[in-house]
Amino acid sequence: MAQHCRGHVTHCLGGILARRGAATVAVSGSRRLTGAEFVAGVRRLAAGLADRGVRRGDVVAVVAFNSIEYMELFLAVTYVGAIIAPLNYRWSFEEATQALELVQPSVLIFDDSFTSWAIRLTENKILPSVALYLVLGDTSSISHAANFVPVDRIKRTVKETTEIEPFSAPNDVALICFTSGTTGQPKGVAISHTSLIIQSLAKIAIVGYGEDDVYLHTAPLCHIGGISSCMAILMAGGCHVLIPKFDTKLAFDAIREHRVTSFITVPAIMADLLSYARYESATVF
């Protein structure tokens, strides 16, 4: 029997409703979600996943670019006590397959950029553990694949949800995060709800994140840096601005348009942004 957990990453949803229920909590392109809309989406998706047979302790693998849907998915998977395993979108198909064989997921979720991976897996019956293939975002390019179910369809089938306490997977595991593989094949590291919460609280304390922050997702949600910063902003009640992946112009325009106050970076990203800013100034004047 599933046990309610004491600490859970989705406990941030209550804070989001309280602090940003009517305010924008996530922006991606022209799409904006209020806190209430975001929380409702997470809960509907969690109920839909449960209806599709996703259970406590199941591993749900994901390969996709950053999006609001990815954020919702991260929380919905963990809400029902399943374990999310994000795959690095920079991997080759062979590298991704090795990671999938390691964690033996029961569900694989992908966006339209990785349709070819899902088709190869199903046609060659490479991963028999996967019972459900779900598609994030645009599904127009894969309408021929009847065995791939759009995530939006799962959410739409859930009309109303009864609010329940989230469940934790065995051993409190929330996430399997893959290492860089610098000393061999990438290894899957199990990370608990408690660890993610403590790390997020540390970031809030050290960086000073608050509900007035507007955070730009320059790091991928398959990387622990991107994941932990996302969680910290969710817990702090800030606003998220998402771009699919780092692109200098997209990032620069987002910073300017949405008055971004924070993002995580590396020297190469800062060099690109500063170079682009100088180019923009020279062009304008």
From TrEMBL:
EC number: 6.2.1.12
Alphabetical list of Gene3D superfamilies matching this protein: N-terminal domain of ligase-like (3.40.50.12780)
GO biological processes: fatty acid metabolic process; phenylpropanoid metabolic process
Class in the EC hierarchy, top level: ligase
Coiled coil: none
Domain AMP-dependent synthetase/ligase: residue ranges: 19-277
A GO molecular-function descriptor: trans-cinnamate-CoA ligase activity
Cofactors named for this entry: Mg(2+)
Reactions the enzyme catalyzes: (E)-4-coumaroyl-AMP + CoA = (E)-4-coumaroyl-CoA + AMP + H(+); (E)-4-coumarate + ATP + CoA = (E)-4-coumaroyl-CoA + AMP + diphosphate; (E)-4-coumarate + ATP + H(+) = (E)-4-coumaroyl-AMP + diphosphate
Highest taxon in the source lineage: Eukaryota
Name of protein: 4-coumarate--CoA ligase
Provenance organism: Eleusine coracana subsp. coracana
Gene encoding the protein: gb28894
